[in-house]
Amino acid sequence: MSIVNLCAYKFVGLDDLPALRERVFERCEALALKGTVLLAPEGINLFLAGSRDALDAFMAWLREDPRFADIETKESPSDTAPFGRLRVRLKKEIITLRAPAIRPEAGRAPAVDAATLKRWLDQGHDDDGRELLLLDTRNDYETDVGKFPQAVDYRLPQFTALPAAIAADRARYEGKTVVSYCTGGIRCEKAALHMRDAGIENVFQLDGGVLKYFEETGGAHWEGGCFVFDNRGAVGPDLLPLPARHQLPLPAGERAGVRGQSGDDLATKSVPLNISASTRPSSDPSGHLLPDGEKEKDA
Fold it and tell me: How is 211-239 classified by DSSP, letter by letter?
């Protein structure tokens, strides 16, 4: 397979967003990369596809900025680029929870790596003998494709619904070790911070999300595939695209090839805005001014 698909994020304070957007766009365009880069005051979230050499060159360039020097990536292969174009967008949050008290760039929640989670699942408890509880922080149509079968799945219509779901079910978490997980790590990081701030103890995030878990464990204890917001639809534990017969149709309003994991709406002023949707991508590719003054840049 000739295409490498790369995703990465980092919570870090950014105060030069318009200039950074221009630099990122120009560099990606020069390297013929396709995908989406989200920039917000809280950090960067990117999903890019291209050749091995082009992605290596882009990441080397990005890491020259001290703010991104330690950004980690996750990769998977495909025969063709699963994105139709390049988009660089300015957002309020790189993953929308609408909980301003949570500041991930100020410090991460405790994390558990893939090998440790597999060991805990193998033995049925954490290393202290405490009962293990997995929390799926993804949307309902994502969990329909695959998940840890024993995980708590609130059938979320959007990520912003998670705090209320946890508050209504708080007793479930008492006395347990909780591991929140998501596709690439960004949602479960915010979820773990929210739970910690709510006073829930022994909460961890799955470092690198499901994709890193697949990479390092082969998907042990997982059932099904992992939904991805691009033309692949879903990948299996081997990180290869799943055949179409194993995939589910996108929900109304979603479009393949437009990464929706950013969390908030991207509709332009000319399109009605549904502020409750957490993964609905833009229906307008023009690069016009966004409803809250944000901008997007497409190629």
Answer: HHHHHHHSSTT-EE-EE-SSTT-EE-TTS
87, 37 in Cβ contact below 8 A? yes
Burial class (CB in 10 A: 0-12, 13-18, 19+), 186: buried
**Which residues have CB under 8 Å from 3's CB, separation 6+?**
49, 50, 51, 77, 78, 79, 80, 81, 82
Residue 182 is a catalytic residue: yes
What Cα–Cα distance (Å) separates residue 32 from each residue in 51, 54, 58, 115, 242? 9, 8, 10, 35, 26
| CA–CA gap between residue 109 and residue 131 (Å, rounded) | 20
* Under 8 Å between Cβ of 4 and 79: no
Q: Single out the catalytic residue among 7, 28, 182, 226.
A: 182
Question: Which domains, and CATH codes, for the chain?
Answer: 3-94+281-298 (3.30.70.100), 104-227 (3.40.250.10)
Q: How far apart are CA 140 and CA 136, in angstroms?
A: 10
The pTM assigned to this predicted structure is 0.79
- pLDDT tens string, the chain, 299 residues long: the values are 689 999 999 999 999 999 999 999 999 999 999 999 999 999 999 999 999 999 999 999 999 999 999 999 999 999 999 999 999 999 999 999 998 877 877 788 899 999 999 999 999 999 999 999 999 999 999 999 999 999 999 999 999 999 999 999 999 999 999 999 999 999 999 999 999 999 999 999 999 999 999 999 999 999 999 999 899 999 999 999 998 755 555 565 454 444 444 344 332 222 222 222 222 233 333 332 233 333 445 55
Kindly state the tokens that stand for 140: 């309902």
Helix (H) or strand (E) holding 14: none
Q: Where are the alpha helices (DSSP H) in 171-268?
A: 186-197, 209-217
What is the H or E stretch that residue 242 is in? Answer: none
